Amino acid sequence: MWYPTVQFTFKVFNPKTGERTWRSVNVSNFATPPPNLDKRSSKADEFTITHVGAPGTDYPETYTISADLTEGVKISLQVRRPGGAPGFKIGKGPDGGYSYFGTDAAQPEGYVVHRFWPLTRTSGDITVNGKPLAVEGPGMFVHAIQGMRPNVVASRWNFAHFQSTAHGGVSAVQMEFTTTNAYGRKGAGSGYVSVNVGGLVIGGKLATVTAETKWPGEEQPEEAVLVSRAQHVKGVHDPDTGYPQPTQLVYRWAAPSIIPDAPGSVNGTLIMDVGSPSEPKGLIEKVDILAEIPTVVKAVVNYVAGTKPYIYQVRGYALPDRLSVSEQSAWQWINPAKLVLKGPDAILPGLAGGLEVEGFSYNEATFISD
Prior knowledge:
By secondary structure, the protein is mainly β. It is built from two helices and 21 strands. The strands form three sheets. Strands 10, 11, 12, 13, 14, 15, 16, 17, 18, 20 and 21 form an eleven-stranded mixed beta sheet that branches. Strands 3, 4, 5, 6, 7, 8 and 9 form a seven-stranded antiparallel beta sheet that branches.
């Protein structure tokens, strides 16, 4: 009989003090759904996550997260979704958000799921070693499922998360993963297929959703009606990991507006300068991904795939009196950023001529050998 292991993983970085706190604990008595709730909620002895709907209000959906992870860490957070920024997924119905692996979608070899709330309002408190830390600000939420072994899901991935409180709220989210060589139009050995999903929130409204799939050997036109792309620029060899660390990251979004009274094309560009291995811009730490997962999974991944994945965490400038709360996944940077937007003036005055929005961007970029 096989029993799954459920973990609650948490990390917080305080930019004012440079203090980092990381916890990953096995939980007991996990249940979903809890009594009288649906599967958007769950609980265990160590935490509760409760979803509450309030249709017709300014915040129609809310997650309340409470956790006591021992070792001096307690969490009490409320994550609310604004009514103007609905969640999005690629595809309709229950299969929306799924990416299937293999030649038969009805009986796939595996799958991953990505569904987003591109803009949230997060507030609450995090207590670390007896010291309460207030959390307040914009964020995002992603419902992500990895329905297959980690070493066969992807050879690399990219992630961008830009937030600004300007103009009533501006957010840019993009997630890209590239499969291993086992998947492609001709089966095993023809892979490295890139799947990219993104979205732009402008003026507090979900303005557009983007998605692209790039097959091996396929050229993507520089300009297209639909663009959803992440690019590594000026890679520099990192002696610690053996991988080429990008010194610049470029993310692009372009698609028709989905706001009914604002037809036209919407596009955005985010260019991030993240420094080099020898001259990083505010490096927090490098984290061996295998050190952050359960021992049994670590042993399987290391033996089967021979991987050497790393996380890079880079600190840019501190958000005054706030915290940057992030999940573990890859090379990670947080820096001040400028998102360049263009679209119909009906979305936001001045957008047709181009608009430069200042904010902060959290970025990830990872290589995992297959």
